[in-house]
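Example for tutorial group B:
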C-alpha cells in the first residue's frame, strides 16, 4: 500500500508494518494498541498514511478516526497531504472521494469505508464505532481524554487498533509519557497486546556524535543525510535539537523536581531487599492501561526498603497475581487507595479474604508526606527501577485536606509506581502519627 501511495517503505517502516500487523491463530490482529515514538522527519506520516489507507481499502465499511494537535493541522494532513499528494496521483484515486467542508472533512471510499477527522478533546468519537483510531502528534496531549473517548468506540470491533504516534514532548506530554511507560513494561510480557516501537538516543549518548544520530534516526541514508542533521544541530537550541531529533525529553531542572535527584540518588542501594514483615500495595492509572504491585519491608533500624515487584499492561492479571504474592509472602496488609482508580480491587481482594486496607484522604496525604520525609532524611532504600525513577522525577503535588498528595493527573508521566511504593510504605509504617503529618 505504501508503494501504491508513491512512497515505498523504508526498512524501519517495513518492520513497523510487520510487527504491528501480527495475527493470532484465528487470523485476528494481535495488538490492540500500537505506540510509535520516533524523531521528526523520519517518515512517520507516510507510515501511518499507508496504515490508514490499507485498513480502508482492505475491509468494507471500516471507520478510521484521525486527530492531531489541533483540527486545522489534522485537516491539512488528511486532505492536503494524504489525499492530494498521495491518493490522487495513485491508482487508488477512483476509489476515494474527499469532503473538504470545514468541520466535516473526511475521505469516503467506494467500499463504504471512511476516514473522519475528529477534534482532539474528550468528546471525540462519541456515538461512533471505530476500527482504527490514530492519535498523531501525541506530544500535544496533556491528559488521557482521547484514549478514554476512543477505546469504548472500538470495544466491539475484533480487529480494532489504537495508534499513538509522536516525537516526545517538553515534559508536559503526559499521554505519550504514559504510553511509553506502558510500552517499556510490555517488552517483558510476551502476552502483551501493546506494540511498542521507539527510536531514541540513550541519555548517555553524545548529542554531537554522528553515531548517536545514526542509532536513533532510521531515515538517515534514505530521505535525509548527515549534513542536514549537522546543519540542524548548529541552528537549534540544544534542548530542542535533542527533543526533535534524538527523541529525548528535556529533563526537569533541580527547581522543578518535587523530590530532588540528589535525595533520591542517596537512597539508592543496589542490593536493598525488603525484609519481613512486608506490606503490599497495588495501584492503576485512570485509564487502567497497566497496574503496579509494590512492597515495603524493613531495611535495618529506622530504614524501610521499597520495591516494585510487578508491573504490566492491562489489569486482568492483578487479582490472581495479588493472591499468588500474598500466599507466597504473607504481607501484613495490601493497601489500596479506594479514593483512586484502583478502588474496584479492594472489594475483589476482600472477597478472597485477603487483608486489604484502605486510606482516608487525610491518611493519603500523610502517606505521601511520610514517603517524602523518609527520602529527605535518608530513611528509605530502593533499587534502580526505570519507571519508578521516572515517576519520582516527574511527580507533582495537589492540595488534599490541609496537606498535599501526589497528583496522578498533572504529573507529566504515569506516577503509578510511586503511588504504589508510597502506599506500601504507609502500610508497613502503620497509620502515621501527628508528627509525620505536621511535617507537611
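The residue assignment follows.
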Amino acid at each position: 500500500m505504501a508503494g501504491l501511495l508513491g512512497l515505498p517503505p523504508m526498512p524501519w517502516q517495513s518492520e513497523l508494518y510487520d510487527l504491528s500487523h501480527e495475527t493470532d491463530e484465528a487470523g485476528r490482529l494481535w495488538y490492540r494498541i500500537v505506540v510509535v515514538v520516533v524523531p521528526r522527519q523520519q517518515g512517520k506520516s507516510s507510515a501511518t498514511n499507508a496504515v490508514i489507507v490499507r485498513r480502508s481499502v482492505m475491509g468494507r465499511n471500516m471507520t478510521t478516526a484521525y486527530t492531531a494537535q489541533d483540527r486545522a493541522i489534522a485537516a491539512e494532513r488528511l486532505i492536503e497531504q494524504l489525499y492530494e499528494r498521495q491518493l490522487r496521483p495513485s491508482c487508488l484515486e477512483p476509489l476515494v472521494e474527499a469532503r473538504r467542508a470545514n468541520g466535516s472533512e473526511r475521505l469516503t471510499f467506494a467500499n463504504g469505508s471512511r476516514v473522519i477527522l475528529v477534534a482532539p478533546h474528550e468528546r471525540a468519537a462519541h456515538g461512533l464505532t471505530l476500527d482504527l483510531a490514530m492519535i498523531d502528534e501525541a506530544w500535544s496531549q496533556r491528559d488521557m481524554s482521547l484514549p478514554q473517548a476512543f477505546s469504548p468506540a472500538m470495544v466491539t470491533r475484533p480487529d480494532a487498533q489504537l495508534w499513538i504516534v509522536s516525537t516526545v514532548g517538553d515534559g508536559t506530554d503526559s499521554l505519550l509519557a504514559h504510553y511509553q511507560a506502558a510500552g517499556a513494561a510490555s517488552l517483558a510480557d510476551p502476552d502483551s497486546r501493546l506494540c511498542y516501537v521507539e527510536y531514541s538516543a540513550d541519555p548517555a549518548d553524545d548529542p554531537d556524535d554522528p553515531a548517536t544520530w545514526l542509532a536513533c534516526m532510521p531515515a538517515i541514508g534514505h530521505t535525509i543525510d548527515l549534513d542536514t542533521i549537522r546543519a540542524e544541530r548548529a541552528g537549534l537550541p540544544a534542548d530542542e535539537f535533542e527533543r526533535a531529533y534524538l527523541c529525548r525529553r528535556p529533563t526537569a531542572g533541580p527547581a522543578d523536581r518535587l523530590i530532588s535527584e540528589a535525595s533520591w540518588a542517596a537512597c539508592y542501594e543496589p542490593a536493598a531487599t525488603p525484609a519481613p514483615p512486608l506490606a503490599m500495595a497495588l495501584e492503576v492509572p485512570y485509564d487502567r492501561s497497566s497496574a503496579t504491585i509494590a512492597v515495603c519491608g524493613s531495611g535495618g533500624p529506622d530504614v524501610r526498603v521499597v520495591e516494585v515487584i510487578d508491573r504490566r499492561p492491562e489489569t486482568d492479571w492483578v487479582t490472581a497475581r495479588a493472591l499468588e504474592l500474598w500466599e507466597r509472602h504473607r504481607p501484613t496488609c495490601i493497601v489500596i487507595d479506594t479514593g483512586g482508580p484502583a478502588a474496584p480491587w479492594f472489594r475483589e481482594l476482600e472477597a478472597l479474604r485477603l487483608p486489604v486496607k484502605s486510606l482516608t484522604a487525610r491518611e493519603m496525604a500523610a502517606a505521601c508526606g511520610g514517603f517524602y520525609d523518609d527520602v529527605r532524611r535518608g530513611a528509605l532504600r530502593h533499587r534502580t527501577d526505570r519507571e519508578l525513577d521516572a515517576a519520582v522525577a516527574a511527580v507533582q503535588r495537589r492540595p488534599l485536606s490541609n496537606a498535599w498528595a501526589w497528583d496522578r493527573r498533572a504529573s507529566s508521566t504515569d506516577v503509578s509506581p510511586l503511588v504504589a511504593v508510597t502506599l506500601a510504605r504507609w502500610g508497613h509504617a502503620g497509620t502515621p502519627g501527628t508528627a509525620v503529618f505536621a511535617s507537611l
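The chain has three domains: 11-198, 210-245, 256-438. Compare this with the pattern of hydrophobic and polar residues in the output above.
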